[in-house]
Write a structure and sequence with these properties.
CATH class of one domain: Alpha Beta
Number of strands: 26
Distance between the termini: 113 Å
CATH topology of one domain: Leucine-rich repeat, LRR (right-handed beta-alpha superhelix)
CATH superfamily of one domain: Ribonuclease Inhibitor
Oligomer: single chain
Structural class: alpha/beta
Largest sheet: 14 strands, mixed
Length: 458
Amino acid sequence: MASLLSLPILAVFYCLSSFFLMSSFVLSQPPLNAAEQEAVYRVLDSINSEVPWRSVFPDDLCSSAPHGIVCDFFDDNTTVSAHITELSFGYVSDYSPNPPCTPNSSLNASLFSPFTELKKLFFYKCFTEKSVPFPDFSSLGPSVEQLVFVENPSLVGPLSGRMSNLTSLRRLVLTGTNVSGKIPDGFGDLINLEQLTLSRNKFSGEISVNFEKLKKLKVLDLSQNGFQGTVPESLGNGSTELLKLDLSFNGFSGKIPEKLKGLKKLEFLDLSYNRFGNFGLPLFLGEMSSLKEVYLTGNLLGGRIPEIWGNLRGIVGIDLSGNGLVGNIPASMGVNLGNICYLGLDNNKLDGTVPNEFGLLEYLSELNLENNNLSGKVPFSAKFVGKIGDKLKLRGNPELCADEDLRSFAKVGSSLGILKLCNKPNIPKSALLHGDSPHQSSASRVLVFIGFLFLLWL
């Protein structure tokens, strides 16, 4: 019994000992050096001069700092030193209450030079009114791993010459700005890049970056810019770790390069709303078995839908709308794409019937076949229609039809409700002998039958 009673006491002693050890560990850590402490205040003032940062946070910023100011300790075997490693600005949410920005926020790269161990810079909706040139971050040195700018429409200017020396950069995110010009060729030397997201900016021109060097790249998003020319074939030669490729809403033209099939791990491919044309759907897609989503909407690929679906059973989303596709919809799509949730084939020139196999796609939650030349009876059950509802889109196919019970089952506003009623099959009556009445015809058949029996008896 005594030993059992001693267990809670030992537990309390252990907790108190751990507390005092941790306290002494924290107290033994050195404070942030004066140069970096002052640099943090200056950066905070440039972001939001309305807050008296020095009086609100007068103590060592490694022990008491606004959310988003992160400090770490470094041991070189002789001394332990404290350094700023992360600076995040712009209120995101109650879970990420970074120092809020103001319409007059400014950004000067020289303010960051004292941070010798800085790894991450993050700005969210900080530069929204006053025009701010994109700064030259070359002076930050090799410690920086992440530069993130989200929704900063007043950030302007080019990137050229502003990223050199950032040899450790793993993540560059620049979305929703007015930064313009070409992507610097030097980006090909940032060999540690894992994510390059430059969406919704004002970039233009051709892309001449050599992606063969970017062996670690996993995400490449250049969507919603003004890029032109062909897609660099070096993408398929080097970035073999790529999981996501988004080049949508640009002016890329020519042929979708076959070397993209070298992206064996690619899961997400979006080339929508460009000018790829007249070469048909790329057959090499059938060799990219890791694909889960493929979006080629709004190009001019033309041709028939090829039989390439046998190796793409993991796909959950496909959009091939608005591509000038012709011919029948292959039944193999319904056979092999058993995991698909979204399928868009609308606004093409497809004809023939809707494959019966489409009605067996149990995970399908949206099917868009609008504005084609499809005909015949739709192959969907009442259960299928009840599950997919108004996400079954069939308008613009005047020769499609549905049974009365299926049309009546459809919800108000459903595209099924506007389809014409399929004709009931006509059951032909037995042909009458010319000039005979029904009774005479029956009598004739009896006589023929008796004659047949007589022949058998003989």
